[in-house]
Amino acid sequence: MRELMQNYTAQVLSVCFCAWLSGCATAPVAPPAPDTFVDPTGEILITPPLIEYRNVRTNDPLEAAADDRARVEGAAGELVMDQLKANGFTARLVTADEIVRLQSAANGWALCDEPAALRVFCLRGRFYVGPGAFWDPMSGAIARGGSRIVLEGRLTSSAEPRLVWAQTVQVRESTDVSRAMLKDTIEVLLKTLKTK
């Protein structure tokens, strides 16, 4: 009986430990926000994402390899387009030159006459990188590294109020820029943007 009880206790403790570990996993977190319902007619233009790498301690910009930045920008743009389509919108990726050309067409006034005029989705990603936890011998302070990913999305329109929707998502203790992590983060980011 005693052996059975020890075995049972060990199993319960291992399940509790696994549950605790899964709660510590990094996952995208967004502040609570009400759903925003937008008319699905018309097209949402997705601008090239702005990707920044920053020092976690000083917030100074860091240089990243051009091919790495291009890979993240391309994947993020495609994932935003896929998620907007999954949410019921028509969307396409455009270049910055196309946006300027559309805004200057007919002095911009022709676009404002349309009910779903010019709707533009912008994504900004900031990847804070730096060392792990550290100890400052001068002050005695012990600090965490604070590596994290912050994605900000905004939908603007020339027909509706200027800013239609905005949301921010953060992934703590991670600088994982894999396609799977970006997909999960963008799903959380766009969760509150819905069709009417």
Short recap of the structure:
The chain is an alpha/beta fold.
* Beta-strand residue fraction: 25-35%
* Helix segment tally: 5
| Record field, number of beta strands | 10
Sheet with the most strands?
6 strands, mixed
Name the poorly predicted regions: 4-25, 106-116
Order of helices and strands: HEEEHEHHEEEEEHE
What's the end-to-end separation, in Å?
62 Å
CATH fold naming: Double Stranded RNA Binding Domain
Q: Look at the structure and give the CATH class.
A: Alpha Beta
Number of domains: 1
pLDDT averaged residue by residue: 77
Percent of residues in helices: 25-40%
Per CATH, the architecture is 2-Layer Sandwich
Q: Please give the radius of gyration in angstroms.
A: 22 Å
General form = elongated
The assigned structural class equals: alpha/beta
Structural notes for this entry:
This protein is an alpha/beta fold. The protein has a single domain (29-195), classed as 2-Layer Sandwich (Double Stranded RNA Binding Domain), CATH 3.30.160. It is built from 5 helices and 10 strands, in the order αβββαβααβββββαβ. The chain has helices at 2-23, 66-86, 96-104, 109-112, 179-189, and strands spanning 36-38, 43-46, 50-55, 90-93, 119-129, 134-135, 142-143, 148-157, 163-172, 193-195. The strands form 3 sheets. Strands 2, 3, 4, 5, 8 and 9 form a 6-stranded mixed sheet that branches. Strands 1-10 form a two-stranded parallel ribbon.
